Amino acid sequence: xxxxxxxxxxxxxxxTQRWIKxxxxxxxxxxxxxxxxxALERKADPSAVILDxxxxxxxxxxxxxxxxxxxxxxxxxxxxxxVDTLGHLLAVAVTPANEQDRAQVAQxxxxxxAVVEEPVQVAFVDQGYTGEEPMAAAAQEGIQxxxxxxxxxxxxxxxxxxxxxxxxxFAWAARFxxxxxxxxxxxxxxxxxxxxxxxxxxxxxxxxxx
Length: 210
Fold this sequence. Notes:
Elements: H1 9-22, H2 24-39, E1 48-57, E2 67-69, E3 74-84, E4 89-96, H3 105-114, E5 122-125, H4 132-140, E6 144-147, H5 163-174, H6 187-209
Parallel strand pairs: 1-5, 5-6
Antiparallel strand pairs: 1-3, 2-3, 3-4
C-alpha cells in the first residue's frame, strides 16, 4: 500500500526496522520530552509518572500472538505505558492482552529509571495494580506506587486525579490509524510505532511553542 513516489515497501520496512532496533525513535522522544519540559520551566526529568495499559484488537497479522482480555472482552495485544505528568511517553511494553497489568510493573519501572538522570519517585496507577507484588517490584526500583481509587459512591463519569493524563496519551496514540488496532506481526514494531507517534506529537508541540 506504499504510494508510488516512495521506494518499494520492503526497502522502507527494512529501514524502519533498523531505526526501531537502534532505538532512534525512542531517543528522539526522550530528547523532545526534555525540551518541552524545560520550555515549561520544569525539570528535564519527571519525579512522577503514571502507568496504565490499553488493549488493541488483533488483526490477521497479529492474531498469532494475541491474548484475550476478559475485562474488556477483546482479543488482541496490550500496550503498557509509562508517561510523565504532561502525558509524554517514558516507557512502553507490548504483551498479549491476557497479561496482567501488575506483572509489567518491574519492566516499566526499570525502563523509566534507565532513561532519567534523577530517579522517578512516584508512580500513579489504577486499582488493577493493587497488591504486594507490584508494590515490591516498584519499590525495588526506588518507586512508590500510589493507587488512585474510584469514589465509593460513583455515578457516571468521574475524573480521577492524575489518571486522566495517561488516558489522554492513549487517546492521542489512537488517532494514528496504524495504532488503532494491532496490525504488526512483531510486538517490537508496535512499540516502535508508539515512539514514532509521540515524536510526531511532540514535534508539533515544539513548533507551536517556537
